Amino acid sequence: DGGITQSPKYLFRKEGQNVTLSCEQNLNHDAMYWYRQDPGQGLRLIYYSQIVNDFQKGDIAEGYSVSREKKESFPLTVTSAQKNPTAFYLCASSMGGAGYQPVMNTEAFFGQGTRLTVV
Amino acid sequence: QKEVEQNSGPLSVPEGAIASLNCTYSDRGSQSFFWYRQYSGKSPELIMFIYSNGDKEDGRFTAQLNKASQYVSLLIRDSQPSDSATYLCAVKGGATNKLIFGTGTLLAVQP
Fold first, then answer.
1. Residue A12 in contact with residue A119, Cβ under 8 Å?
2. Residue A95 has what pLDDT?
3. In degrees rounded to 5, what are phi and psi of residue A103?
4. Could you report the per-residue pLDDT of B61-79, keeping only the tens digit for each?
5. SS3 content of chain B, % helix, strand, coil (to 5)
6. Is B103 near chain A, with CB under 8 Å?
7. Mean pLDDT confidence for A53-82
8. In the prediction, which pLDDT does A15 show?
9. C-alpha angle with apex B3: A74 to A48, nearest 5 degrees?
10. Whether B7 contacts B28, CB under 8 Å
């Protein structure tokens, strides 16, 4: 089955520790996104990538890092520099990377999310 | 000014009524517009997408787009208690082609 998979579903981080959230898709999508959602809030864009080996900062990139070495994978590392990492993290993918035309069929599909808690 | 704005609600409607959800966006170069539904603790799921000015209907849902006014809306006819969720407006395209979400509107359908 085609889809987008995030792991783990729940993750606990100690103070000062780096953790990596996994996101894998087999939809052959060029574009991938990472969002953070706090309770009762919308989705805020952390990083996005429109093509392999390229990515751009979103609105809240500080304290996070990503890589895009393969089309299928877009892992997110929450570093110790992120002072308030407790949140629900969502990964998404879509067609419509850089230079993609036309605009149709560019809807994004989400993984099931990772809930990160600092202990 | 936020890139994508929605009224956070809650929007309360009686069962069987029409629910109207609204969204405005700031980037005039935006090309693709989406509505997602999110139940508490779950990831968002796509309900509707629209690219051209006018209305697009799919079952009980109608998306409306007005690019001149930078406005997109979602109408839900015959609202059901199972429609109670947060509805997220998302906009893509423009200079960066990134996908930006609004803060969402919480809809409560009263039986």
1. yes
2. 84
3. -85, -10
4. 999 999 999 999 999 999 9
5. 5, 60, 40
6. yes
7. 95
8. 85
9. 10
10. no
